[in-house]
Design goal:
Elements (H helix, E strand, L loop, with lengths): L8 E2 L2 H9 L5 H14 L4 E7 L4 E6 L6 H8 L6 H5 L25 E10 L2 E8 H10 L3 E2 L2 E2 L10 E9 L7 H9 L12 E4 L2 E2 L11 E7 L5 H5 L5 E5 L2 E3 L4 E2 L1 E7 L12 E5 L2 E4 L16 E6 L24 H33 L3 H8 L3 H16 L5 H29 L5 H8 L5 H21 L4 H12 L17 H13 L4 H6 E9 L2 E8 L7 H21 L7 E7 L7 H10 L2 E5 H18 L7 H6 L1
Parallel strand pairs: 2-9, 11-12, 16-18, 20-21, 21-22
Antiparallel strand pairs: 1-6, 2-3, 3-8, 4-5, 4-8, 5-7, 9-10, 11-15, 13-14, 15-18, 16-17, 19-20
Length: 640
């Protein structure tokens, strides 16, 4: 070789910080990058072994392995564009390559300070050790060049493939094995015998069953060519409907997958009310459902997976952001997908409502007393009784005894309306006209919808009051007063924030310790911490007339995020989901891609005061527009 060093890596501290150390925040995401690399290396088996006592993680695959040239030219070449150079499909098994940016390997430093790589190809053994501390030191001393330490080939025990050893871990990996298998399984759709790709965690194979939500699916909507396969996996599903997966026939845009609805909202894991987006069998977007800010009750019961390979076509630009867990939202391909999925969600909403009524009747009639009452009703009245069943069965109850009590009063109300209609008809007609009774009762669409309509109406009034404040400084003070205790202003699904006095006090103390510059102290209006929808939320408010720079904002946000993680760790949360929302009066004026990359690195997003008001109005406005008729039902409900 031309110099004395066997291995060479070239990168900057900025790349290491933003594409390595800060790329991911949880162990499953990092392990998924290693699994994806093993898939690209034509591995048939990946073993992930976690030694909790010694703080070591080993990832071993039986793939193609690497020579010294492969390690230097590909593995240590940050930004190596595998698809462009080697092709989109692997040489022997013709698997479609998952890797694209060539930066996933740096994600290992998100959780470990020391990374050791052993690889064997054609009998040639090679190994290297990379140290976070040594990388930083050599980058500074050698102008961006780093030479990993060589490993004696006698210490390499594998006979083929690649083994990665992570040690000096930054975060404790106390994820129980079933939980870790579940989270890895949910990030891939290509694990299993049919794909000749197996992943084992501490000796136990990961399978589709580890996703642990198929058994809870009550209603199932499958999509596209491969969607039907999920019918067999959802063994407890009661109803099924299939959708065509063609998004744009001319451009060969197609999707496949499934959307499911559980019977009860508490059957969804906390923070798992999502429809994930995949491409080539790997997760690329955590949730597309939140894009639509659906206010309808049905959306709170949904979960699903949609595979859209056209988002990652080989000859098209890369659509994913640097952290590989979200896509670029203003890309035309993603816009086409969003427009295609929205009418599907509306159809799902309609079908869900009808199916629930049907199953509610079946459930109600399991009670022999209710069945006896129902059997005595005329055919024209039974369909209205089914509406009553749906209302009562859909309401959440802590105790089933309370539901029985509700049936008692519901049947009394039903009979009272029926008698009243009969008396009116007897005064004018020789026989009872069931249609006249229907005109009284059929307008009651859904008790839950009426209640939620009232809530949404009041919320819109609050938002419109904000919008009506002309003076921006006054508007800022009013929003500041309400936003921390009313997180639905930021997202309709965040109904309320959970609170823990001990954690709140601890976080407040940690935030006070954060060192800010004089300019940061002057510019900061307020900062708070809340929890909602399975997330920890940091809300940073800036004065409406203050302009901030992207790097300045990201640096400040990172201080608070680190402080919160430190605090939550003391309370047993080792991998908290933290979202940072920065409410600004002026947009950041840097390049859009630069802003997005910087904000992604700290899991933050920026909302402008005007944007907050408009998005909140849009989210609730669509729901109210579709349910105007419900407003007139309140008087009927109050009279029951």
């Amino acid at each position: 070789m031309p110099d004395k060093h066997k291995y060479t890596m070239t990168l900057s501290l900025n790349v290491l910080n933003h594409l390595g150390i800060n790329l991911y925040s949880n162990v499953p995401a990092v392990l998924s990058e290693a699994v994806a690399n093993a898939w690209d290396a034509e591995a048939k088996q990946v073993k992930i072994d976690i030694d909790q006592n010694n703080g070591v993680i080993e990832i071993t695959d039986d793939g193609l392995g690497m020579t010294v040239e492969d390690i230097n030219d590909k593995y240590l070449n940050i930004g190596y564009r595998k698809r462009e150079i080697e092709g989109a499909y692997t040489p022997n098994m013709k698997r479609h390559v998952m890797g694209r940016k060539g930066i996933g390997k740096l994600s290992l430093f998100s959780i470990a300070n020391k990374v050791e790589v052993h690889s064997v190809k054609d009998g040639e053994k090679n190994g290297l050790i990379m140290s976070n501390e040594e990388i930083r030191k050599q980058i500074i001393e050698n102008n961006g060049t780093y030479h990993p330490e060589d490993v004696n080939s006698k210490l390499i025990t594998i006979s083929k493939g690649t083994k990665i050893i992570l040690s000096d871990l930054k975060k404790r990996t106390h994820l129980a094995e079933p939980s870790l298998r579940k989270r890895v399984a949910r990030r891939f759709s290509i694990i299993g015998r049919e794909y000749k790709f197996q992943v084992r965690i501490n000796g136990t194979a990961v399978s589709a069953e580890d996703r642990d939500f198929f058994k809870s699916i009550q209603f199932l909507w499958t999509i596209g060519k491969n969607g039907q396969r999920y019918v067999k996996q959802c063994k407890n599903q009661k109803r099924h409907l299939h959708f065509n997966g063609v998004v744009d026939k001319a451009k060969k845009y197609e999707i496949s997958g499934w959307v499911g609805a559980v019977a009860k909202h508490n059957q969804l894991d906390e923070g798992n009310n999502k429809i994930v987006l995949m491409a080539w069998g790997k997760l690329i977007q955590e949730d597309i459902l939140e894009e639509y800010k659906e206010g309808g009750l049905y959306s709170k019961y949904l979960i699903g997976e949609i595979r859209a390979d056209f988002l990652d076509f080989d000859k098209a630009d890369d659509i994913t952001t640097s952290n590989r867990q979200t896509v670029i939202e203003d890309d035309p391909r993603y816009d086409a997908l969003r427009k295609h999925i929205y009418p599907l969600l509306k159809e799902i909403q309609n079908v869900w409502t009808q199916w629930r009524k049907e199953l509610a009747t079946e459930k109600a009639l399991e009670n022999p007393i209710i069945k006896k009452w129902y059997s005595k009703l005329k055919a024209s009245s039974r369909k209205h009784a089914q509406i009553l069943f749906d209302k009562i069965e859909s309401l959440p109850m802590d105790k089933e005894e309370d539901r029985k009590e509700l049936y008692k009063y519901g049947i009394l109300a039903f009979e009272r309306l029926k008698v009243k209609a009969t008396l009116e008809d007897l005064n004018t007609l020789s026989s009872l006209d069931g249609l006249k009774f229907a005109s009284v009762f059929n307008d009651i669409d859904d008790i839950e919808a009426v209640l939620y309509f009232d809530i949404a109406s009041e919320r819109v009034k609050v938002i419109e009051a904000f919008a009506g404040i002309v003076d921006k400084n006054t508007q800022e003070r009013v929003i500041q007063k309400y936003i921390f205790d009313h997180l639905w202003l930021l997202h309709p699904s965040w109904e309320r924030a959970t609170e823990n006095a001990r954690i709140e006090e601890s976080v407040a103390r940690e935030f006070k310790k954060v060192r800010l510059s004089k300019e940061e102290r002057t510019g900061r209006l307020d900062i708070r911490y809340k929890t909602a929808a399975g997330k920890h939320i940091i809300i940073e408010l800036k004065k409406v007339d203050r302009k901030v720079k992207t790097l300045q904002l990201v640096e400040q946000v990172k201080k608070y995020k680190d402080a919160l993680e430190k605090c939550l760790k003391r309370f047993g949360e080792t991998r908290p989901i933290i979202e940072v929302i920065c409410l600004l009066g002026h947009p950041l004026d840097d390049d859009a891609n630069f802003i997005r990359a910087q904000l992604d690195s700290v899991h933050a997003r920026v909302i402008l005061y005007d944007q907050l008001i408009q998005e909140s109005l849009d989210g609730y406005g669509k729901y109210l527009e579709q349910h105007k008729a419900i407003a007139g039902l309140k008087e009927i409900i109050d009279s029951l």
